Amino acid sequence: MRLSRYFMPILKENPKEAEIVSHRLMLRAGMIRQQSQGIYSWLPLGKRVLDKVNNIIREEQNRAGAIELSMPTLQSAELWQESGRYDAYGKEMLRIKDRQDRPMLYGPTNEEMVTDIFRSYVKSYKSLPLNLYHIQLKFRDEIRPRFGTMRSREFMMKDAYSFDLTREGAEHSYKKMFTAYLRTFDRLGLRAIPMRADTGPIGGDLSHEFIILADTGESEVYSHKDFVDFDIPAVDTDFDDVAGLDAIFKKWTSVYAATSEMHDEAAFNAIPESDRLSARGIEVGHIFYFGTKYSEPMGARVQGPDGKEHPVHMGSYGIGPTRLVPAIIEASHDENGIIWPDSVAPFDAIVINMKAGDAACDAACETIYAALSNAGKDVLYDDTDDRAGTKFATADLIGIPLQIIAGPRAVANGEVEVKDRKTGARETMTIEAAINKLLG
Question: 57-67 pLDDT, tens per residue?
Fold first, then answer.
């Protein structure tokens, strides 16, 4: 992508409305634009990152055996009246009526709808276990949307819903998602700590929030420092291995970790002081087991091996991609801008032409750009006639992992400079070596 032809509206000044680092940097880097209170457009640079986050989430959900579908954003109120949540949910639900005066709602979550889909087609325990997921925009009319897409009214969620014959089976499904979440956040460059949490309006009696530590976190969290060194489950984890997943779950829940709502001061104080961790945290995922809360009132039953009908045991598992993007920025930035992990960076590298219009610089940049692009790398080519300082500031602000800098003096020697955005390390090398470094 040539920067001269790309849509990336950089802001030079810090936006006054931005209270936290991620909101400020996302606006300055031209990733998002607020359309109304708590509702944002994702501009091209931001959407590239969001798509990469969604791809990683999708890969790990698939690896754990979940199956993707797509459900509508508008839902019939009848389903929610059936479950008993329509009147109980509160003012966060956007209630509307269609032209036939039928009550509808803009879905804040999908437990009712997925239960309706399940009960329409699944009749036997032989079709279980089943886990269905989707990635979709949702709406909750937050009383105080803030922090950009960290807490917005319209947001994107990955929701997965598991169905099992027994509680034992449902707990195994819960541990599948628990393990998948550990892998997902690690691939996104985050260390997420699973913490006991309140089930809230979703319901149930087993729940964990996945929290990343950040000074701008909305709540106080408490945990043992051992979490920092726990190994992430491997790529070849067998999600059908009941004992193996149980061991992973027990390890990651073996030491104290809780959000402020579930905090036990006495239990926390029993930890040696040197091992206590008290910090601010950002929730990036939440999983629930809620048993038959929805299947009982909505008649989601299957025939068991005993020939009798049984209400299925369910769980739900959420990750907010539009929340994850600012969370990654909160965890990875410096005074100059964003530092993207390689896995979600909008581009793999940026080629900076220090003297656009100079025949030698143009030729060198075109060679590098073509070689990397043809090899399948996502490359942004800064071919603008901006000043050097502006080019460097832009490259640092948008956080692309590697910068390839082509100036007249270096190019005359057949060389370019390669800068690592995270470490700041610079290395002069031949054009061929720079290409090979990116391809390697």
Answer: 999 999 999 99
